[in-house]
Amino acid sequence: MRGRPMLYTRYESDQALLNTGTKKVMMGLFIVLLVLIPFGVVPGLTFLSQPDWMRLLSTVCIFAVGALGLNILTGLAGQVSLGHAFFMGLGAYTAAWFGVEPGPLSGLGLPMWVWLPLAGLVPAIVGVLIGPVAVRVRGLYLAFVTLGLVFIGEYIFRNWVYATGGPDSGRTFPSLEWKIWKEETPLVDFQSDGVWFGVEIIEEAKTYFLMLLLLVIFVLLAKNIQRTRVGRAFQSIRDRDIAAEIMGVNEVQYKLVAFGLSSFYAGIAGALLATFIGRTIPERWNLFLSVQFIAIILIGGAGVVSGVILGSVFVTVLPRLVQDFSSWLADYVSEGEGAFVWLADLFISTGSGDFGLVNTLPGVGPGLSVFQFNQVLYGLLIILFLIFEPLGLYGIWLRIRNYWKGWPFTY
Amino acid sequence: MTTVVERPEAPGAATGYPTIASLIRDRAGVKPDVVAMREKDFGIWQEITWGELWDTILNAAHGLLALGVEKGDRISIHSEDRPEWVILDVATVAVRGISVGLYPTNPAAEVEYLLSDSGSVVHLAEDQEQADKVMEVVDSLTALKKVIHVEPRGFRRWRDDERFLFWDEFIELGKEHRAANPGAVDKIMSEATEEDVMTLVYTSGTTGPPKGAMLTNSNVSFCLDILVNDPKRVGGDKPVSEDDIILTYLPLCHVAERIFSTWTLAAAGPTLNFAESIDTVQLNLREIQPTIFFAVPRIWERIHAGVLIRLSDATFFKKMLAKPSMAAAQFIGRERVKNGGNFTVASRLLYLIFNVLFFRSLKERIGLRRCRYAASGAAPIAPEVLEFFLGLGVSVYELYGMTENVAVATTNYPGRAKLGTVGEPYIEGSLRIDEDTGEIQTKHGGVFKGYWNKPERTAETFTDDGWLKTGDVGEWVDGTHVKIVDRMKDIIITSGGKNISPSEIENSLKTSPFIKEAMVIGDGRKFLSALIAIEFDTVGDWATRKGIPYTTYRDLSEKPQVIELVQKEVNKTNERFARVENVRKFAMIPKELDHEDGELTATQKLKRSAMSDLFGDLIEDMYRS
């Protein structure tokens, strides 16, 4: 019925992802915007078409896929996990095992359509196998169990040199190209400049499109998990496990499913991240990576897909912004003019004798490096969000939306 | 009598007097795939098309034939509003039976009275609750053959009881009968006459036991011509049509909802939407956003109070905007009142600004944004409330009628409305005010045939020259509009000999969001007093905010702070009236009034005599010192 957005005559329209005309239009425009960004034709966003920003956006997509996985486990099913990095690593090395040309290290040289799904499936199976241990504990104890997983994983990765290349040199990963089998020239090569549909396109933009497409697929999957029986079961376990069991939700079974799904996402994200970066050492899959994902879902908004994407953008782009801001400040300080130099100087350390919070010249003088400062920032943000806005960035959005939705009342 | 009822041509349409059944059949023949009804069930609005509707009605009609229902037999319906109500009602008309509606709140004793008085042969008890009531008194109901139930739950203990029939089985029975006797219902429909009684509408009975008013097919036709198909009555020169959307939520056994829902459906083909329950009306309104909306004053008052309360709870910025907006609404309302309901230039301009800023979203929230015609009737409403809605741009027109004249007496027309009156007579010369008593009397094609089995009561209702006595005292305003003073028997004559209409004072009291019911007393007394019942929700809310602890309704009512609050509201009302009409004392009613306890009628009207008996000591206390 026109003009009656709350009148639902079918469950399909009630449950539709885009249940109003406005949402459909806005989502359509947003997707067009995302597609146009690499061509540098969006006013005000032309800088995003630069290769370094394109790489950053691809990273956002990859992190979003991984965070969607953690969101299923932590946001929906309420099981805190610090083991996400381990499953990502597992996915990355599975991809390497199946995708890389045979050589001194493991490798079967199979095409992407084989190694990418396997990079998800193998961690999923491992996740379900480890699951029974994990589902026996909850809360803080589960966090510790999964923390152990990260360290065990790191140990194995470091020592299983045949698969991982060891801590010294690391190893290469399959390249991002679409082959039917093992032919010489791939159908689509995502890692070299070329022409698509008559338009010149740089390799970073190609990778971005691939990652964007995969993200869209995984977002739809996550959305559908969330609004179906399985997702509702997860949420009931999160809200009160005993009540969920009384309602007939098989707690152990659904927790295992949550672990499996989460590990699947993690594996895919790990494989994508490794292939995107190219050469990686086993230490990459450490606790800090897990914490980054926790930060994403807590800052973005646990349990909400759009929140997770917001969080991925935030956590991935933040270091870059801090970096840019710090160097700008450093220049500002070194010029020595302006009313706020003293303030900037407190923040920036410009030399061995200068005290400041952040040091833009690594190794010279005191102060935190930009990387360390970012870590502090993540921690700070997690604490602040947990205290003041438990629903994260999404919660802020929700607040704004409800303010206008409730107009002219407050409730 | 001339009746011009729009009748789309349909193949095989049999002749016979047009009834609501034949109207629905004809429309279903033309537009079988258009949605006729929606009912909210399991969270979504399930749709019923005209084709499905008529098919089910036909099956139900055959089902009635299979149960041995004959011409003139009474079929009673005891249910909340739902499609089955309408289906059985129309099916009854199709087989030339007489439908009898019961209020869902009717207790067992009243069910016994209504069923035995009407001599119902088939009874529909919606669910276990209503079935319990009829089974309690079933032994005295000799005429009753079958009880149909719509909800299957809770009927296990009567599983083998031959008297019960589940709705689905009833429809199955009808299907079998239809296959065996094709065209049987059509044949009966073709024999329908204008004098057929199609329904008994029981008056709510503020005095004495309810009486069943007999309404005939010709009464219905008359009513539909006047109320539904007149393009002047509803705004925009467009009568009710298939594009209109109606929310059905008041009891269908009341003549007003029956006209606005079932009969309008048959005559004009809008979409009926059944609200889940009376408690969810506000939410359902928001979902449905009806284009035509009829409500009793109680509902209008509740929406009004809800808006005021929620605005006072808004955050700072919203409150800042609410103040000028409500002031603007008041100004616009007053301007429109002065102008017969039309906008003046100034009020139109102001309205355009505040509509965008405020009114539009407010109306969306209360579900009246798409409403092109709204009406209030069935009881007197306070002018302040109407003014408020006029100011928001929801044109609410007060109208007046009663069961005995199929609700056709007077109405306010868009553009020439007068606040405080119930409008103009529909037809010139169909209404008069008795010069001696001031009683309003009507005479037209809609006047009923009489009370069921009560010829002496029927005779009492008519004057010697055949006019229907409404029992309401009225007066002419400007020679065109009618103002209702009060029910004839409710008028108070104080010991000082002053005539006072209590309902005006009561309505003014009830505009306060804190007062739910008020009864003004003073017949033969030195001064006026009132019994006042608080609105538990809003007063409770107020008390919580003030940090006043309370437990029950009674406890809250008797808090000194609450009495002080009510006193302030009473003072506000007193300022509006002359000194003799001031309420000098009041007492708080210590319980929530209820139909089952006999304080209210099924339509939530006060039973004054019962109230005087129940709370006699409270009243005497006020006059003692």
Describe, in plain words, how this protein is organized in 3D:
The complex is a heterodimer of chains A (411) and B (625). Chain A is mostly helical. Chain A folds into two domains: 53-283, no CATH class; 286-411, no CATH class. Chain A has helices spanning 11-15, 21-36, 51-76, 84-99, 112-134, 140-159, 161-164, 166-169, 203-226, 229-239, 241-246, 251-277, 287-300, 305-335, 341-347, 370-388, 392-405, and strands spanning 171-172, 177-178, 188-189, 194-196, 199-201, 279-280, 348-349, 358-359. In chain A, the strands form four sheets. Chain A has a two-stranded antiparallel sheet. Chain A has a two-stranded antiparallel ribbon with strand order 2-3. In chain A, helix 3 (51-76) packs antiparallel against helix 12 (251-277), helix 3 crosses helix 13 and helix 4 runs parallel beside helix 6. With 625 residues, chain B is α/β, with parallel strands linked by helices. In chain B, 40% of the residues lie in helices and 19% in strands. Chain B has 21 helices and 26 strands. In chain B, the strands form six sheets. Chain B has an eight-stranded mixed sheet, sandwiched between helices. Chain B has a five-stranded mixed sheet with strand order 12-13-14-15-16. A four-stranded mixed sheet of chain B has the order 2-1-11-10, with helices on both faces. In chain B, helix 8 packs across helix 9 and helix 12 (316-338) packs across helix 14 (383-392). The longest helix of chain B is centred in the middle third of the chain and has 23 residues, at 316-338.
